[in-house]
Write a structure and sequence with these properties.
By secondary structure, this protein is α/β, with parallel strands linked by helices. Helix content is about 45%, strand content about 15%. It binds NADPH dihydro-nicotinamide-adenine-dinucleotide phosphate, pyruvic acid and magnesium ion (MG). Keywords: Metal-binding, Multifunctional enzyme, NADP, Oxidoreductase.
Length: about 750
């Protein structure tokens, strides 16, 4: 039976296939510790496990130290109000609960057990939940119908010493409050002046309207309906929470109440708001039709009925997804990280403010890339951040943790700066290692010219650079194209004010530029006509000339085309006695930590001299990232055991390095596994000079280095910073066509750092 009438047959099948293949369900459990040897078994299980048990028995708080409890959330439902599908039972609710668990993990790194319980009696359900306290760090109640949910939540909060949060009530109320704050701001209306009509007075409805009252909407301005009509004093079927919203006087109908109303808040069921009723609302009404999966009214129908309406639904396939997913992963993250005993009103309000303000701030590089083609500028179509906005985690979790500390429910002290770094590192994997580089970039104001200034990724990176550094971007490209792409992406940067544009078709410096190029190249066969043509059409050459003339401090190119092609123009204009391309170094950020690889692009085949220069340059650059280099020269030969070309180059290169008395660790030649596995290396060559795992792998040719880099990127999930062009004094970098916005921003931060500050 198809429940969502708006879903096509193929979409329905796709959703079912998603759940069934390649294996049923959306979750699995994975061990976090090695379990490969008898020794592991003896530690993880008997006898070693008893040590952890006795510690916890003696000190119960140690449960968060020796078990997963501190990061484990229970998602518990009895299936009595599953989305807008109603009471479909505990088992049928399992896909939703598994889904919530996936979102907890994906968005906030929290582990979950989904627990579906055949228990309709709220007191008995609460009793059961309370008994689960030893297992979990927190409890997320889900899809339990009103009024039972109020009873379950109250009992659990009274009896349990861990946070208990009914997502449909409070998660939804927080997100609705954030969206309503922003919608009212755009409508230039104040909460105290608006009239609200709510359809659905269940778990979500009651909590959301309670929150609207806290925002300042007067009680008398809210009219709430359920299946039996308006909530009214005369009704005997209402629970105390619903009675709070019961109106006095004559009974009203939905149509009467909606006439002239400013805000409709639907938390009921599919298709219950007819377009005729929307037409009766005040001009430019706010319509939050939040029933899932099918809203009270589809956005196109609402817009047709009232063209100026601001519309939100709970779904991901329309703008303005007002859904508790914007809240629950992050509020639990913040609460658990300070071991809060409760999630209180202060923490909820901190969450509202964080979500609302994120929508009003400029979108991040990542969210722009994840939602390419959508205009993500604060406005009627973007009232609320997107669920994939990586800023949600650090912004909300920190605000919640701070509120927990200030309101006295936190039981663990944390260093908030360190906490921010940890959270940012989770969502922006490069952030921790790039921190030092960004700090250096903020110490000096540099002009960075982007050769491919019309590329969307470059434009977004320029926006991020303006926000995150003190450097100025210069974009080479046609102004009308750049400006229309800025507008399409919903960015706020303005040429002239925030950055410069160099128009290759009409820049006033054109004559100076082609003459500079010609002067440099006239004895390499470049005629004045050719110089003019190059400087009119080749943006990499323009960028290189700008750096050579001092109009920019550094250039970035390479979002399209071949590395060597770009390198050619950089060498022509910028190489000299002191500056010459030495090698390209890629920093790969892996789950196991950073790993540097060179030379990926410059020396097709290394000589002993270029190899030694590559090693020395790599050591210098690795230190820029705050890492102490441990460099392995990698080859098919291992400590002289094979007479092959790469082995010979490595051995001769090692001799050159050894003669220099260098202050960093290096060793070779060896296989890559020996570089990364120090036990293996010790067995092969006990006298080797490296300590522990190497963090820099140097290969004898670009083929081998390129293979290592690409395998790490594609198969090991490595995030690349680079390639970093070493030897050019930070005056030029060439990215590769697969570069992301974050990749460009990272390279821009490197280019924006004054190299001399690293010694
Ligand atoms: N976007 C989001 O983030 C969220 C959306 N929701 C959605 O809100 C809806 C309600 O969820 P929840 O509060 O948990 O469920 P509840 O079962 O607790 O409440 C449902 C409410 O809707 C009312 N209702 C149902 N059908 C009608 C109808 N035909 N006419 C008028 N009122 C009706 C019910 O009235 P009665 O009591 O008389 O039966 C009840 O007041 C669901 O569609 C759910 O998907 C919920 C949470 C979050
Ligand atoms: C989103 C959600 O929790 C619901 O619709 O029930
Ligand atoms: Mg729910």
């Amino acid at each position: 039976m198809a429940l969502d009438k708006t879903n096509s047959t193929s979409e329905r099948q796709a959703a079912l296939d998603y759940h069934q293949f390649p294996r049923p369900g959306k979750l699995e459990i994975r061990p976090t510790k090695p379990m490969a040897t008898g020794r592991d078994l003896a530690r993880a299980y008997s006898p070693g496990v008893a040590e952890a048990c006795t510690e916890i028995a003696a000190n119960p708080l140690d449960a968060v130290r020796y078990t997963a409890k501190g990061n484990l959330v229970a998602v518990i439902s009895n299936g009595t109000a599953v989305l807008g599908l109603g009471n479909i039972g505990a088992q049928a609710s399992k896909p939703v609960m598994e889904g919530k668990a996936v979102l907890f993990k994906k968005f906030a790194g929290l582990d979950c057990f989904d627990i579906e319980v055949n228990e309709a009696d709220p007191e008995a359900l609460a009793d059961l939940v309370c008994k689960l306290e030893p297992t979990f760090g927190a409890v997320n109640l889900e899809d339990i119908k009103a009024p039972d949910c109020f009873i379950v939540e109250r009992i659990c909060r009274e009896r349990m010493n861990i946070p208990v949060f009914h997502d449909d009530q409070h998660g939804t109320a927080i997100v609705v409050a954030a969206a309503a704050t922003n919608a009212l701001r755009l409508a230039e209306k104040k909460p105290e002046d608006i009239r609200v009509v709510g359809l659905g007075a269940g778990a979500a409805g009651i909590a959301c309207h309670t929150m609207l009252r806290k925002m300042g909407v007067p009680a008398k301005s809210i009219t709430l309906f359920d299946k039996d009509g308006v909530l009214h004093e005369g009704r005997t079927d209402l629970c105390p929470e619903q009675m709070e919203f019961a109106s006095a006087g004559a009974k009203t109908t939905l149509e009467e109440a909606l006439t002239g109303a400013d805000l409709f808040l639907g938390l009921s069921g599919p298709g219950l708001l007819k377009p005729e009723l929307v037409k009766k609302m005040a001009p430019n009404p706010i319509i939050f039709a939040l029933a899932n999966p099918t809203p009270e009214i589809m956005p196109d129908l609402a817009r047709e009925a009232s063209p100026g309406a601001m519309i939100a639904t709970g779904r991901s396939d329309f703008p303005n997804q007002v859904n508790n997913v914007l809240c629950f992963p992050f509020i639990f993250r913040g609460a658990l990280d300070v071991a809060a005993s409760d999630i209180n009103d202060d923490m909820k309000l901190a969450c509202v403010e964080s979500i609302a303000s994120l929508a009003r701030a400029t979108t991040s590089a990542e969210v722009g890339q994840a939602y390419q083609g959508e205009k993500l500028t604060f406005g009627p179509e973007y009232l609320i951040p997107k669920p994939f906005d990586p800023r949600l985690l650090p912004t909300i979790a920190i605000a919640v943790a701070k509120a927990a500390i200030a309101s006295g429910v936190a039981r663990k002290e944390i260093d908030l700066d360190a906490y921010r770094s940890t959270l940012e590192a989770q969502v922006f994997r490069s952030s921790l290692i790039m921190r030092q580089v960004f700090e250096a970039a903020r110490q000096s104001q540099r002009k960075i010219v982007f050769a491919e200034g019309e590329d969307d990724r470059v434009i977004r990176a320029a926006q991020a650079m303006i926000e995150d550094t003190v450097d100025t971007p210069i974009l080479i490209g046609r102004p009308d194209i750049i400006e229309s792409r800025i507008e399409r992406a919903g960015l706020k940067i303005k040429p002239g004010r925030d950055f410069e544009i160099v128009n290759p078709e009409s820049d006033t410096r054109y004559r100076d530029y082609w003459q500079s190029y010609h002067e440099q190249m006239e004895r390499r066969g470049v005629t004045p006509d050719l110089a003019k043509a190059v400087l009119r059409t080749n943006t990499t050459a323009i960028a290189a000339v700008m750096v050579a003339r001092g109009d920019a401090d550094s250039m970035i190119c390479g979002t399209f085309g071949q590395y060597q092609w770009h390198l050619n123009y950089i060498e022509q204009m910028l190489a000299n006695k002191e500056l010459t391309p030495v090698a390209a170094l890629s920093l790969m950020i892996l789950d196991s930590g950073p790993l540097f690889v060179a030379d990926t692009h410059i020396n097709t085949e290394q000589t002993p001299e270029t190899l030694a220069a590559t090693v020395i340059a790599a050591a210098r650059h690795v230190r820029r990232f705050g890492n102490e280099p441990k460099i392995a020269l990698c080859s098919g030969s291992q400590f002289g055991n094979r007479d092959c070309a790469s082995g010979r180059v490595m051995r001769a290169g090692l001799d050159i390095l050894d003669a220099k008395n260098l202050n960093f660790a290096y060793e070779g030649e060896m296989h890559t596994d020996a570089a990364l596995d120090s036990e293996l290396r010790e067995r092969l060559f006990p006298g080797n000079r490296l300590d522990g795992k190497a963090n820099v792998l140097i290969y004898a040719n670009t083929d081998a280095a390129g293979v290592a880099r690409n395998l790490l990127k594609c198969e090991a999930g490595g995030l690349e910073v680079g390639p970093i062009l070493m030897g050019m004094g930070n005056r030029a970098h060439i990215v590769t066509p697969g570069v992301t916005v974050r990749g460009l921003l990272n390279i821009a931060a490197l280019a924006g750092s004054d190299v001399s500050s690293y010694g």
